[in-house]
Specification:
heterodimer; A: 303 residues; mainly alpha; MetI-like fold; two-stranded antiparallel ribbon; B: 283 residues; 2 domains; 15 helices; 0% strand
């Protein structure tokens, strides 16, 4: 009797394994193979349409990209974009989320959340297209800024100046993702039980004190995780920069790593070099993801 | 009543002001997109911008569908985007749920290893493997085809994770009862487990649909002919030629956003639910 029972268990277990086979196959072919392939290819001088077999060159591709000003420029562009985008996004969305939780009207809060989130609904290509028009020399961007600064007729060169074009890409990203991060923070804020605040208020803590002494420390893990998430997102940015360049913006200031991989690998057909760049990007993101896992494990707070 | 009145202080007024200014910032570009899609180019770049279109310049939409070259390729590109996004949403939901079910509810050797490996793929950004994937796609002769557009996104590790988390709490008694009644394992999944995953299915379906609707990078690599291109590629081509017709470009943007707005209006709960989750496979 007992043996038969084990038999059923085994049979069931086999089903369980069978259910995972399609996914395992998929991830082997479309995730693990490509990443190992990228590591391998990054050691060769490989071109797409070349008939000669790829030549092994050790770390030559890495030596090449790390001595190439073009690649360093991409690293610079990517990091400038990442820092310039994720810091304002995190600070602003934390502020907005805190303010929204102080609203007593649930309806108003819901409305603001939805309204802030709406830009995230449209695709990033559409977002870039809209802002391309806003940043037109005669467009709304100049009109708004000149209205606020009371400086009629000044052209801010949103898409032409090499500093401004970087700021412009940051604005697009900020605009598109602010609502998304507001919602992340609101979820985090509501996870803090109100009883803690009540106790603090009874003890004579002001709202300002409560925010710095209770909310901030308890929210720290969320802030760290959201920041890393935002950084990971920004490091992968592609669409905005691509669209801006298509729309006539100068390439160099916003030539982020992903764009460089695309140009090197697909347009210039230097697969080996592009793979080396991919691995560099992968390693940067891996360090951040590892940090994220570490922090999410060690900083789990229980209320 | 007196208390409520007292509590509305200047701090609160400032908070409201701040919230409203940000609201203006997030909403105006969208309003701009919609109003200017009904304007002639001259009206769009006029200073100051008038928010109400004087004439109803619907010709922009014809121009948008027709394209600058008059080849009417945009409808085909919309169809392509729909085919790709719907297929990816369907396969992601199906494969993720069956895999998540297998991992959550069966005790087999190597279960945890499999789960860890699938989770590990979340650390691999698509941008880092797009070149090898492109080589795989060309090797399999999938370039410039629906299969090529779809195959790298059949399922997402994130989806598997979601489904597993959700199904871990699914009561095993139901499954055992069904087994006692002689139901096969596949029909248990299909008739008992799957229909009970609706919230995750909705969130995951929307997330995957959006992912592909928004995907620029992969179609850029894998498609060559105009008739295989998807909406994001059409928009980027339009952006290149934008000086020809700004109004038509915004009409393209509106058409491209319409399905998303409809989905968002009908299912905003799942939209926002999905947005709080992290997906590494977004293009």
């Amino acid at each position: 009797m007992k043996r038969k029972y084990i038999g059923i268990e085994r049979k069931q277990a086999r089903w369980g394994f069978a259910f995972t086979v399609p996914a395992i196959t998929f991830f082997t072919v479309f995730s693990f193979y490509p990443i190992f392939n990228a590591m391998f290819t990054s050691l060769f001088d490989k071109r797409v349409l070349s008939l000669a077999p790829p030549k092994f060159m050790g770390l030559g591709n890495y030596a090449y990209i790390f001595s190439s000003p073009d690649f360093w420029n991409s690293i610079r562009a990517t990091f400038v974009f990442t820092l310039g985008t994720f810091i304002p996004i995190v600070i602003m969305s934390l502020m907005l989320a805190t303010f929204l939780t102080t609203l007593r009207s649930k309806k108003a809060r819901g409305f603001f959340q939805i309204a802030y989130y709406t830009p995230a609904v449209i695709s990033s290509v559409v977002a870039a297209a809209i802002w391309l028009l806003i940043f037109d020399p005669r467009g709304l961007g100049n009109q708004w800024v000149n209205m606020i600064l009371n400086s009629p007729g000044v052209d801010r060169k949103w898409l032409a100046d090499k500093t401004m074009v970087q700021v412009s890409t940051m604005i697009v990203y900020f605009w598109k993702y602010i609502g998304y991060f507001v919602i992340l923070f609101i979820t985090g804020l509501f996870a803090i039980p109100p009883t803690i605040y009540e106790a603090a208020t009874i003890d004579g803590s002001s709202q300002w004190q409560s925010f710095w002494r209770i909310t901030m420390p308890l929210l720290k893990p969320t802030i760290v995780l959201v920041s890393i998430m935002a950084m990971l997102q920004c490091l992968k940015t592609f669409s905005t920069q691509y669209l801006f360049i298509q729309g006539g913006a100068p390439r160099a200031p916003i030539n982020v790593i992903t764009l460089n991989i695309y140009t090197t690998g697909i347009r210039n057909q230097r697969i080996g070099r592009a793979s080396a760049m991919s691995i560099v990007l992968f390693l940067i993101m891996l360090v951040l993801t590892w940090l994220q896992f570490r922090l999410s494990k060690s900083e789990d707070v229980e209320y | 009543m007196k208390q409520i009145f007292k509590r509305i202080s200047w701090v609160q007024i400032l908070i409201w002001l701040f919230l409203l200014i940000v609201l203006l910032f997030t909403i105006t570009p969208l309003v701009f997109m919609i109003t200017s899609s009904f304007m002639t180019s001259k009206q769009i770049i006029r200073m100051p911008f008038s928010w109400i279109p004087e004439t109803f310049h619907y010709q922009n939409y014809i121009k948008a569908l027709q394209g600058n070259d008059g080849a009417w390729i945009f409808p085909r590109n919309i169809l392509n985007s729909l085919i790709v996004s719907l297929t990816v949403a369907t396969t992601t939901v199906l494969i993720a749920s069956i895999t998540g079910y297998g991992i959550a509810k069966f005790n087999f050797k190597g279960r945890n290893v499999i789960f860890m490996l699938i989770m590990a793929t979340m650390m691999i950004p698509f941008e880092a493997i797009m070149i090898p994937l492109y080589m795989v796609a060309t090797g399999l002769k999938l370039q410039d085809s629906y299969a090529g557009l779809i195959v790298p996104f059949l399922v997402s590790a994130f989806g598997v994770f979601q489904m597993r988390q959700y199904l871990t709490t699914f009561p095993s008694e139901y499954l055992d009862a069904a087994r006692v009644d002689g139901m096969g394992e596949l029909s248990i999944f299909w008739r008992i487990v799957f229909p009970n995953c609706t919230p995750v299915i909705a969130t995951l379906g929307i997330l995957s649909f959006r992912g592909q609707w928004d995907n620029l990078l992969w179609p850029l690599l894998v498609t060559q002919s105009e008739k295989m291109k998807t909406i994001p590629l059409y928009i980027s081509k339009f952006a290149e030629e934008k000086m020809t017709d700004e109004g038509a470009m915004m009409a393209v943007a509106v058409i491209a956003s319409l399905p998303m707005f409809i989905l968002f209006g009908a299912l905003s709960k799942y939209f926002i639910g999905g947005s709080t989750l992290y997906d590494s496979r977004k293009g």
